[in-house]
Amino acid sequence: MARTGMLDKSAAIIDGTSEDGLKLTVTTSATEVEELDDGVAVIESFSNVVSFETTDGHVLFDVSHALSAPSVVEEFRRYTDSRVNTAVYTHGHTDHVGGAHAFDSDATKLGFPRIRYVGHEAITARFDRYKLTNGYNGHINMRQFRLPAPTFPKKFVYPDVTYRESTTLDVGGRVFELHHARGETDDHTWAWVPDAKAVVVGDFFIWQFPNAGNPQKVQRYAWDWAVALREMAALGPELMLPAHGPAIGGRDRVAMVLNDTASALEFLHDSTLALMNAGARLDDIIHTVKLPDELATRPFLKATYDEPEFVVRNIWRLYGGWYDGNPAHLKPAREMELAREMAALAGGADVLARRGEALAADGELRLACHLVEMAALAEPESKIVHGIRAAVYEQRRRSETSMMATGIYRAAMHDSRQKIDEN
């Protein structure tokens, strides 16, 4: 069992003394259990499992992904032979709840009572929605995580105990104060553990820019997220336990991370809303609102998964609906019809595609993507067009920093390459 290395690592990154920085990777292997304080431990994996020891078994926060959970359970058993009393879902995303089956199997094998699962009441509706949209979510995962085929689970372990605004658990004499807040999801729980002066934050902090924009997922809540972070900081935590990446120790350091993340979200929210109130279109807003450098360059706010531009879109969606201010988009023509008309005006789809290619060569990738997309819609069987389209999206993919963007551009690139092979 390791001890203290995780806190040293996070401190070096935040304080700017680390030369390596932090790059989060998706893995199905679990790290060795790291005990941060007496009876407070973390297992890092696809998503972390946070463990609190009590006199009546352990309380876990999250149970990781189904693929990583067997490894997590194995490491947990190297750490303790005590039972898991309760597992709290910080939220209903599958990388946090999918491991419940593995933990249940472990409890059965060892003859322990069934684990009690706790979460916000909206998790139940989420699981039901996941069953309705299984295919769609599978395609999202394929694009976002570069999987060979659509993949998404169909079975979930629903929470036994739910709450609405807040609740307190007392397990083996240890108190856990659970609080609901909207952020990445509408069903998110963060927890305050008074005796450890610890805050369990789930995905309210992920060592990257907050996942508050995700273009392929349902509504996220930037303002509510910021409010929750301020509430956590006000408690004066000395230990911060996220669901991805290393834990953070030290009252001042934890406060800075929570407050700076809140400031970033507040800036995007207030700037977007100000322009909306002034009558600006979405197009104007996404090209105007930019995060200040002093926040964008924080080592824990880099746009390597989600990014500020997507958060701006989500803020618009929350307050303004899907109409973007352009009357032509209210009841648009089919994209293919518009593309064919533009290709005819240009002198052919190949002309559009080659102009896009030239723009890409000049670094005008946003405009280039519009033209090659129109060209491919106008002549979907053209190998020449798809060759150019694939090359432009490959260049676009390499120019982006967030996994959200690169996953979609990579999928577009592969789509054109597949069309070339088919034709």
Please give a structural write-up.
It is a single chain. Strands 1-2-3-4-5-6-7-8 form an eight-stranded mixed β-sheet, sandwiched between helices. The N and C termini lie far apart (56 Å). It folds into two domains: 2-264, Metallo-beta-lactamase, Chain A (4-Layer Sandwich), CATH 3.60.15; 333-422, Alkyl sulfatase, dimerisation domain (Serine Threonine Protein Phosphatase 5, Tetratricopeptide repeat), CATH 1.25.40. The chain is built from 16 helices and 14 strands. With 423 residues, it is α/β, with parallel strands linked by helices. The chain has helices at 5-15, 69-79, 94-97, 100-109, 122-132, 134-145, 222-234, 251-277, 282-286, 293-296, 308-320, 335-346, 349-361, 365-378, 383-399, 403-422, and strands at residues 2-3, 34-37, 40-43, 49-54, 57-61, 84-88, 116-120, 161-163, 166-171, 174-181, 188-193, 198-202, 239-242, 248-249.
Question: How are strands sequenced across the largest beta sheet?
Answer: 1-2-3-4-5-6-7-8
Query: What is the domain tally?
Result: 2
Q: What's the CATH architecture name of the largest domain?
A: 4-Layer Sandwich
Number of helices: 16
Topology of helices and strands:
Layout: E1 2-3, H1 5-15, E2 34-37, E3 40-43, E4 49-54, E5 57-61, H2 69-79, E6 84-88, H3 94-97, H4 100-109, E7 116-120, H5 122-132, H6 134-145, E8 161-163, E9 166-171, E10 174-181, E11 188-193, E12 198-202, H7 222-234, E13 239-242, E14 248-249, H8 251-277, H9 282-286, H10 293-296, H11 308-320, H12 335-346, H13 349-361, H14 365-378, H15 383-399, H16 403-422
Parallel strand pairs: 1-2, 5-6, 6-7, 7-8, 12-13
Antiparallel strand pairs: 2-3, 3-4, 4-5, 9-10, 10-11, 11-12, 13-14
Helix pairs in contact: 7-8, 8-11, 12-13, 12-14, 13-14, 13-15, 14-15, 15-16
